[in-house]
Amino acid sequence: PSSASCVVLVTSRRRLTSLVVANAAHRLHLEAPSESEAHELLAARIGAKRKAFEPDAGREIVDACDRLPLALALTAAYVTDRPDRSLAFVAERLSGPPGRLDAFEVGGDGPSLRSVFAPSYEALAPPAARLIRLLGLHPTKHFTVEVAASLAGVDAAEASGLLAELCDHYLVTERHRSRFHLPLLQLRYVA
Predict the structure, then answer these.
(1) 101, 114 in Cβ contact below 8 A?
(2) For the chain, which terminal residue's Cβ has fewer other Cβ atoms within 10 angstroms, N or C?
């Protein structure tokens, strides 16, 4: 910025604690859109009539996308490029086996979820990368430090450190004290 009245907005898939400490930056953490906002976003992109025609499939798509705007935008592009495909078909494709992220590819040099998640995953230390892969074995997307420790075969203190690293990369979020959430899309990336 060229003067004190300028503002710089820095975004990252990683917590930028050093920027906050060194430059007195203000952190603004953005949550995923609410469920109703995610439905509005999908309807705005694919058309309200089309979404209203298959409301259950629309809900499944929003859930499969974990309400993430990029995932919803890529899915909407897939839907609008294929008007002959039902939303139920798209929802089924998204809920399928680990290759489901491929459903989000738009080709060329366009954005993809793999390109968003890959740098975060690849920057992890090997024990943290191993833990996130092991979390894919857990039957739900919610878990505790003790579950993570059991899966990784480490004590709770070590598991807490690994989870802190995963949280720093926004691959896992801490919902409540010692209760964590692994979004389904990240699960599918590492599966």
Answers:
(1) yes
(2) N
